[in-house]
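<discrete_fold_record>
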Amino acid sequence: MKPVVARIEALIWTLIYGGLLAAGVGIALAREGAPYGVAVVIAAAVVVAIGVALVWVRSRLHAP
């Protein structure tokens, strides 16, 4: 596997799982009444969306 492909795959899963974890924390913060809880959820959703977009990018790369 090419090093670039390996880096992209590691980044994909880091972004997706990290974003989901951050979304869970943001939801918990929002339920407790923290004013920035919704902002954390929105930022986490953007991070997950970037990870999903990278899945598409990875599918378009030609690696052996």
In short: Residues 6 and 58 are 10 Å apart (CA to CA). The chain has a mean pLDDT of 92. The longest helix spans residues 3-31. The radius of gyration is 15 Å.
